[in-house]
C-alpha cells in the first residue's frame, strides 16, 4: 500500500502542477478575448487565428482542468444524498463510481481519441478556415486531458481504498485543508 500511496502522491503533484498552468490559461483566454473584441469592434479587424486560439485555450482549460477538479473534489456530483452518508459510505460510492464509470469512460475516450489524434498529427491537420491554426495540437490535448483524468481517477481510487482499509485518514481532509490554505 505504501507504493500505491506514493504513486497517488506523485499523480496528485502532477495534477497540481498542470492545474497551476491552467489557471494562467484562464487569464490568457480572458486577455485574448478582450483583445479580440477590441480589435474587431474598435479597429474593424478580425482574424480566424485569434478566434481559434481563444477556442483552443478555452478547450485546454476544460480538458486539462478536469483532473484538477477531480483532485479537489470540485467535479459535478449530486450531493442531495451523498452528503448525508458516512465518510465510509461516501468512500464506497466513490470507489464504485470510479471503477464502473470514470475509469471505463476515460479509457474508452482514450481508445477512440488516440487514432484520431495520431492521424491528425500524421497529416499535420490544419483548420479549414483561412488563416486558421493547426488542428492536431488540440486533438492531442484531448488525449492528454483524458490521460490526466484517468491518472487522477487512479489516484482517487487508491486514496479511497487506503481509507477503507485503514491505511490513511479520510481522503477528504487533504482537499478541505488545501481549500482553506
Run of helices and strands? HHHHHH
The tally of domains stands at 1
Residues in β-strands, percent:
under 5%
Low-confidence stretches: none
Pfam families: DctQ (PF04290)
Membrane topology: Multi-pass membrane protein
Family: Belongs to the TRAP transporter small permease family.
Transmembrane segments: 21-41, 53-70, 91-116, 136-158
Using brief descriptors, characterize the structure shown:
mainly alpha, elongated, 181 residues
Per-chain topology:
Elements: H1 2-43, H2 48-71, H3 79-82, H4 87-122, H5 136-164, H6 172-180
Helix pairs in contact: 1-2, 1-5, 2-5, 4-5
Domain Tripartite ATP-independent periplasmic transporters DctQ component: 32-161
Transmembrane segments: 21-41, 53-70, 91-116, 136-158
Family: Belongs to the TRAP transporter small permease family.
Walk me through what this model shows.
The chain is an all-alpha fold. The protein has one domain (2-180). It has six helices and no strands. The model has no long low-confidence stretch (mean pLDDT 89). Belongs to the TRAP transporter small permease family. The chain crosses the membrane at residues 21-41, 53-70, 91-116, 136-158. It is found in: Cell inner membrane.
